[in-house]
């Protein structure tokens, strides 16, 4: 059920703080791979208004994982 999965991902992102996009992407992929019918996932996370040294920029990460990666 995509709606339920969306709400779980939204809750995960909103209720926790992440210093690295990679950490958030991994946690999302962990959550998705808990679904019994999911064998593989690709997660892309983008932060569009990052700030560093007075400059604004965007940053993104994409990870691909499979059920076998969780062992």
Characteristic key phrases:
71 residues; alpha+beta; two-stranded antiparallel sheet; 2 strands; 38% helix
Topology:
Blueprint: H1 2-15, H2 21-33, E1 40-52, E2 55-66
Antiparallel strand pairs: 1-2
How big a fraction of the residues is strand?
A: 35-45%
The CA-CA distance between the termini, in Å, is 25 Å
User: How helix-rich are the residues, as a percent range?
Assistant: 25-40%
Q: How many E-type strands?
A: 2
**Largest beta sheet: strand ordering:** 1-2
Count of helical stretches: 2
Integer-rounded radius of gyration: 14 Å
List SSEs in N-to-C order: HHEE
Provide mean pLDDT, rounded: 90
Main beta sheet strand tally, sense and closure: 2 strands, antiparallel
Low-confidence stretches: none
Rough shape?
elongated
Q: What class do helices, strands and sheet pairing give? A: alpha+beta
Task: Explain what you see.
The chain is an alpha+beta fold. It is 38% helix and 35% strand. It has helices at residues 2-15, 21-33, and strands spanning 40-52, 55-66. The chain has a two-stranded antiparallel ribbon with strand order 1-2. Helix 1 runs antiparallel to helix 2.
Brief overview:
This protein is an alpha+beta fold and 71 residues long.
């Amino acid at each position: 059920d995509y709606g339920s999965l969306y709400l779980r991902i939204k809750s995960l992102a909103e209720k926790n703080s992440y210093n690295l996009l990679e950490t958030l992407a991994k946690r999302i992929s962990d959550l998705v791979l808990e679904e019994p019918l999911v064998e593989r996932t690709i997660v892309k996370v983008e932060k569009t208004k990052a700030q560093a040294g007075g400059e604004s920029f965007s940053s993104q990460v994409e990870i691909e994982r499979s059920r076998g990666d969780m062992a």
